[in-house]
Amino acid sequence: MCCQANKEAVQETIVAYTAERESEKPPRCVSFEEFLVRGDEDTWAEWVDGEVVLLTPAATKHQRIARFLGDFLGNFVLLRQLGEVFQAPFTIKLPPPLKRGREPDVIFISRERLHQLKPAYFDGAPDLVVEITSPESIARDRGEKYVEYEAAGIDEYWLIDPDRQQAEFYRLGTDGRYRLHIADAEGVYRSEVIPGLWLKVAWLWQDPPPAGVKALREIGVI
Fold first, then answer.
1. Which of 56, 153, 159, 143 is closest to 110 using CA atoms?
2. Are 92 and 121 in contact (CB under 8 A)?
3. Most buried residue, 100, 119, 139, 196, by CB count within 10 Å?
4. For the domain with range 3-218, which CATH number is right: 3.90.1570.10, 3.50.50.60, 1.25.40.80, 1.10.3720.10?
């Protein structure tokens, strides 16, 4: 009886050890098409070198800024018929050789690039990308994504940090490198890729930010 019990204990240990080793195996690489099939609108994830990377849920202030910018930019672009604005969750597949399916907080696609829009993602580099940082994402947004968006040829990259109340606006130079552009003395930033659009940076730090319609009235669009 004792021997049988020992055998069972050894068997259980082997099973547990095997399961632990299996869990340590690197994740299987998936194609971009598999990534799209596996995902849904309730799952926030990105595709990086064949691996699916899950994203943490956004904080309240992050969501409010994203909603404001999506509404503000989206309606401005719609009224001027300049293209389309999309908010996360929505995937962009960066151009080769980058193997990246990123999910920025907000993107702007000019009318000239709308032919690259697919039913479930955008194929290529949008004209403008907005990332709103969180403690979990700040290193990725400032590091990996900065380099990727620059290499992909995304003309304008807005990096919004709610915790530090800091907004950085990068524009692609003729040498293919990002250059930092800051708000003027009045705290206003004027976009280069969205003609006529300007943003009061202080709007981002209001709690909550103003309604998109109110901001559009202030800049004289409606």
1. 153
2. yes
3. 100
4. 3.90.1570.10
